[in-house]
Amino acid sequence: MKNSCHLSFATAVALVAAVFCCAPVCADVSAARAAMAQYKAEMQLAAEAASKNDAKGAASHEDSARKYLNEACDQFVAADAGKSDDVAVLRDYAGACLLNDDYDLAAAALNRATSIEPDDASLWASLGYSLTELGAKRANDAAAAFHKAIGLKPGTDTVAGAYVGLGEVYRRQSLYGLARESYQKALEVKPDMRAAKLALAAARVRDGEVLEASNDLDALGPMSNQEGALLGTLLTESVQAFDSARLVFPETHEHHMAYAKLLLRAGKNSQALSAVERAAALGPGDYVTWNMIGGLSRQAGNVKRAKEAYTKSLEINPDQPRTREALKALGN
Question: Which of 50, 240, 301, 313 has the greatest count of CB atoms below 10 A from its CB?
């Protein structure tokens, strides 16, 4: 597995769309499926460890998961799964290939599967994900696969995933209006689809709707490592596009704070500090703003500014034990 913690956009959506099936185990791929079951179990344990801030435990389980995935892929190849006439085998093999970033092998298996079961929308959607990751040369083929899925099963969860995948194809072709429209259609089909919400929030940033985007992301609550990595990638691109286009948003405290939080999500801490400083100038009575300045200034090594910010925050709201501790830790 080339990168277990930072899956590509299309691969992340593919996993949300449930590329694996629960068909009866076939004798020729039973070992591969058993290894995949172990892989998923280890990834679940890794997620549980991460939720408890057990980084060492999470890393250990991810290492084990990697070994099981490699074993599964080897077993699928040994069983000649890619040449099977059993759609369930082809689907499971393609799922393992997607997780292992072997998009060409996944596409080949799914092409074969769709030729056997041409009315299975989930196969066409999965084929679209695989083709998307093969680059611009297969973009038209990927879009065609997603459209095929959408046409077969309108209004289903599979189609919601296909709309998000189609949006990713458009985004990579710089067709941002069509991408945003696709994300919106996904949410019309499945209003709680997190991948669509992440993508749409990033699209809103590109268009200057920073307050709306920030509020949408806050409403999603805690994110998984995969979601955080996906969002960071999308936001970095959207913020750069927003800046390059020299777009502006309303000159209010709320908008600058929203932009600062988006920049933080994108890992742009120095830019976030500038944005939150502007927010403080526009709304000096918000202690949360001063706490953010304190934290970012401390990270940047500016102890003086951090002390000033924490002191100002406590003047506005004295009932903040954590802020007092942070200020005390900076020394006199």
Answer: 313
